[in-house]
Write a structure and sequence with these properties.
- It is a single chain.
- The chain is built from 20 helices and five strands.
- By secondary structure, the protein is α/β, with parallel strands linked by helices.
- It has two domains: 148 residues, no CATH class; 192 residues, Tetratricopeptide repeat domain (Serine Threonine Protein Phosphatase 5, Tetratricopeptide repeat, Alpha Horseshoe).
- It has a five-stranded mixed sheet with strand order 2-3-1-4-5, sandwiched between helices.
- Strand 2 and strand 3 form a beta hairpin.
- Helix 3 packs antiparallel against helix 5 and helix 11 runs parallel beside helix 13.
């Protein structure tokens, strides 16, 4: 058994990032347009103008997704996963080597997750990215104008609102619309692009991890290539395979080497998972790892609060605080809203532990079987299985 105290926590209290300005701009624009449309409802298409405009926003989202997908090869982007519909997880399958998730609500019929792929020569990458984003926005603007002058002008205003929202949200994030249009062409941005780029091996390993194919991810990853994205895939794979110390060390390295918030969030979530899973597996003693887990969770809440809602970390925290009923609800919600198979399998494992706490052992085993089917070979499934066999759960003192 190694000591968790030998693995440095990635928490840095002086590195908090806020997105207050972009959120304020978003709220002001929405309120302004909403008030304006409410006051001039007749000109915009009658009393139902707000509803029609909302449909225009949804139309704008789908248009943006499809245009971005169509231009992805030119832009140097790679597709890693897809989703049909929104809402809770109904099922999934692999299509052309990518995870496809089915959800019940056809609010936005088709959603994609794409990432930047490292080019072989790097020539013209900035130009291709810039022209892609500018072209997509140009088409969206043209559609908004045409609809605004049609029989249903509110639809056009909705598409236009989505265009503005896309432009002003997260202006400082690499590959955001604002950053690509107004920052990418100026100065040396190659280092920031490189931090967000996937080499082919890391890209393929990430696709396999998202689909819950741990063995295939191991085969695809290959040797280190020096990039943060390879390091992120490697620490995620180490966590999935139960190599907790290695996962924590690589997560800490990823955090230290990264400037981008998404990479830091990735590192924090893997580190917290390694601490919690390492204790549950008996790799570390609770007094060694749980304080570091608590500090990391606080950092996540301060800088990346969305992680608590879209992963099972909040449920794990509730378990450690001996609140199994709350943990069961949080884990069920995380499993239902999981963006990928690996996240869903981990959340199902956490829910199984919570159900065992509540005395629902049969249901816990049923949930654990779903986790095993979702991500075969996931070490957490074996750990939880042993806990259920002993009807013992590791908790904080």
């Amino acid at each position: 058994m190694s000591s968790a105290s030998n693995v440095q926590s990635p928490v840095k209290k002086d590195r908090k990032r806020r997105g207050g300005l972009s959120r304020l701009l978003f709220v002001v624009i929405c309120l302004g347009l909403g008030i304006g449309m409410a006051r001039t409802g007749v000109q915009l298409g009658g009393p139902g103008a707000i509803l029609v405009a909302w449909l225009g926003v949804l139309l704008g989202i789908q248009l943006h997704v499809l245009l971005s997908l169509a231009a992805s090869r030119w832009a140097g982007m790679g597709l890693v996963s897809m989703s049909v519909g929104t809402g809770r997880w109904l099922g999934s399958k692999r299509v052309a080597g990518r995870l496809l998730v089915f959800r019940p609500l056809p609010i936005v019929p088709f959603v994609t997750c794409m990432v930047l792929v490292r080019p072989r020569d790097g020539q013209g990458r900035k130009l291709r990215l810039w022209t892609t984003v500018a072209g997509v926005l140009g088409v969206e603007a043209a559609v908004a104008v045409l609809l605004a002058h049609s029989a249903v002008p509110s639809l056009g205003y909705g598409v236009g609102l989505l265009l503005i929202m896309t432009l002003v949200l997260r202006p400082g994030r690499v590959l955001s619309v604002f950053w690509t249009l107004f920052r990418l062409p100026f100065g040396d941005q190659e280092q920031r692009l490189e931090e967000s780029s996937y080499a082919p091996a890391a890209l393929e390993a990430t696709r396999e991890l998202l689909a819950g194919r741990i063995g295939a991810a191991r085969e695809a990853l290959g040797p280190p290539d020096g990039t943060q994205r390879w390091l992120g895939a490697s620490c995620s794979l180490a966590l999935a395979e139960g190599r907790f110390a290695e996962a924590a060390e690589q997560a800490n390295e990823l955090y230290e080497r990264s400037a981008e918030p998404l990479n830091k969030a990735w590192a924090l979530s893997v580190y917290a998972g390694a601490m919690a899973d390492g204790v549950a597996a008996g790799h570390w003693q609770p007094h060694e790892a749980l304080p570091q887990f608590a500090r990391t969770m606080q950092e996540i809440r301060d800088t990346q609060p969305l992680l608590v809602r879209v992963t099972d970390l909040g449920a794990v925290e509730s378990l450690l605080k001996q609140s199994p009923a709350q943990a069961a609800k949080q884990a069920a919600r995380a499993a239902g809203m999981a963006p990928d198979a690996m996240s869903r399998a981990r959340a199902l494992c956490t829910r199984a532990v919570a159900l065992a706490y509540l005395g629902e052992t049969a249901k816990a085993r049923e949930v654990l079987a779903k986790a095993d089917t979702t991500a075969p070979g996931l070490d957490r499934v074996a750990v939880v299985g042993r806990l259920l066999d002993r009807t013992t759960v590791v908790t904080s003192p």
